[in-house]
Design brief:
Elements lengths: L2 H8 L15 H38 L15 H10 L3 H30 L3 H21 L4
Length: 149
């Protein structure tokens, strides 16, 4: 063993200067941390945007009278039909509420996607593959649960 290899093995680095445990070097670790903080910021902003849209929709529905009056009779209606009816009647309260719910429901799949990308960039192939698998399962569950008219 050369002195350089011996020194590298004692400080946790390989002979070429990369970390011995496969961890990213300082530069890519800083990039990974920056991306993780960006994802956290995206999720935080997404929750606030979703809450603001839901609050605006609720305030508009309360302004128009009793918001629970529409629930006095139950009629199952597919989402696409409900959106078409809301657009046709300019029911902005319901449209804003749907937009808020859409943003809120989109956040977990976005988190899974960005986690998969971060893992792939860190060369954690097994974990990245699992994250992409979870994303595919989420997409399939959404598509298979959709009621087509």
């Amino acid at each position: 063993m050369t002195s350089r290899q011996d020194e590298a093995s004692t400080n946790g680095m390989t002979a070429d200067g990369a970390p011995a445990n496969g961890a990213p070097n300082g530069e890519s670790q800083a990039e990974t941390e920056r991306l993780e903080l960006g994802v956290a910021r995206l999720l935080r902003v997404g929750v606030f945007v979703s809450g603001a849209l839901l609050l605006a929709g609720w305030l508009l529905s309360v302004r128009g009278g009793n918001p629970f009056e529409a629930f006095s009779t139950y009629a199952p209606l597919p989402l696409a039909d409900s959106l078409r009816a809301s657009l046709a009647s300019n029911d902005f309260a319901l449209l804003l509420s749907y937009a808020g719910l859409f943003v809120l429901v989109a956040l977990p799949p976005l988190r899974v996607f960005f986690t998969a990308v971060l893992l792939a960039r860190a060369r954690e192939r097994t974990l990245a593959a699992l994250a992409f698998f979870v994303l595919i399962v989420l997409a399939l569950s959404f598509v298979l649960g959709w009621e087509f008219a």
